[in-house]
Amino acid sequence: MRNFPWRAADVVDLPVIGTPVDTLTDLSRTPGGPGARLAAVRLEAAAFKREFATTGTPDTITTCDLVTLPYPTRFGLFRASRAIAPFLSITNRMLVIRWHETDGRSRVLLFEPSDVELGRYTPYFDRLAQRTPDVVARRMLTEHGTVLDHLAALDIAPGDIDYLLFDHLHTQDLRRWVGTTAHQEDLGGQPEPAFPNAKVIVQRDELAGMAELHPLQKPWYQPGSYRDVPAEAFLPIEGSVILGPGVAVVKTPGHVFGNQTLVVNTSTGIWVSSENVIAAECLTPEHSKLPGLAKWSREWGQEVVLNANSIESTADQYNSVILEKTLADPCQEDPRFLQFFPSSELTGAWTNPGTKPTFSHRTITHAKERATT
Fold first, then answer.
1. What local confidence, expressed as pLDDT, does residue 6 receive?
2. H/E stretch holding 295
3. How many CB atoms sit inside 10 A of residue 351's CB?
4. CATH number of 17-366: 2.60.40.10, 3.60.15.10, 3.20.20.140, 3.30.1240.10?
5. Model-level pTM greater than 0.90?
6. Is residue 108 exposed (0-12), middle (13-18) or buried (19+ Cβ within 10 Å)?
7. SS3 label, residue 101
8. In this predicted model, what pLDDT tens digit does every residue of 105-115 receive, in sequence order?
9. Which of 5, 82, 226, 369 counts the most CB atoms within 10 A of its CB?
């Protein structure tokens, strides 16, 4: 049974976006085995980093906290953690990125604008909630603010949003953001799109994968919520593209087949953001004080610790994280760690002993310096 009323092929004629990145080869299509692809990605990432740094910077980047929620330790710190806590906490955040095109047009992109209320019905989290007493759930889940409330505080009108971007569509329900083609029983009608001018930038491979889910994928997607989402709400891309000055989407397959990563150039250098890992120290585990990470990395000869709730293609995900690690500049606050901003970042909580991060970013803040005369 198909999950969508339309196939990935149905969106082939929709408008394209951005400038393709020729420097980066699609990892999932690079010849050779995963080891050969790993060697290639190190070279390609270094070349793209030099190229990308010359594209300029966006006008502003603002970070907005959405929700802190529980997540299995065995998923977030794949095989490496020795914490006694079965769950850790992650904080999902939205980035608001603004820039101007060369012709002067302004653009606004929302990265990870999760509809937290509807995201709860993701099969995995829905089952977890049903097994968790309310008094415990209230201690483990904290909502910080909605997407629309954050935009109002920034004085950004919903109609000014051009693009919605997610590293992948796990847990996401887009119906309230982009509208539907039919009545939605659970929403009490046919919602008008909150973002009437916005398009969802997504890898064509993920649309293809979602059209008929594999059992490994089913706990993490809400296929029913896409049945009435119009195909024209999507801007499907293939591979990596530069969207604007200092703003790029890089394809990073593995966590899901069509995973993608946001890359931005800022006043402190290049930042990378995805959910491929849940903490900056997962890129440099030798500096981690989390129980088990440094030892596990050393003993197993693995230089990164994956976020592995979904193991669609683990070797490719590892290679994608190496790509991200190569692109990200060192953190100015502590150069042992990189400017990797997890879209869902490990967050310390007294309820989860042994999972307090050694280092946290919590925010990306960037504003382009204005020229003076």
1. 54
2. helix 293-300
3. 14
4. 3.60.15.10
5. yes
6. buried
7. coil
8. 999 999 999 99
9. 226
CA angle 325, 311, 68 (to 5 degrees): 70
* Structure token digits, residue 13: 């004629």
Distance between first and last Cα of the chain: 63
- DSSP one-letter string for 135-164: HHHHHH-EE---HHHHHHHTT--GGG--EE
pLDDT tens per residue, range 144-191: 999 999 999 999 999 999 999 999 999 999 999 999 999 999 999 999
Q: Does position 271 have pLDDT exceeding 60, yes or no?
A: yes
The amino acid present at 284, given as its one-letter code, is T
- CA dist 97 and 149 (Å) reads 16
Going from N- to C-terminal start, the domains of the chain cover 17-366
Residue with tokens 């060697």: 39
Distance CA 280, CA 362 (A): 11
Residue 151 CB: number of other CB atoms within 10 A? 23
Distance CA 192, CA 181 (A): 10
- Quick: pLDDT tens for 194-236: 999 999 999 998 988 888 888 888 999 998 899 999 989 999 9
Q: Spell out the residues 6+ positions from residue 4 whose beta carbon is closer than 8 angstroms to its own.
A: 207, 210, 211, 223, 226, 227
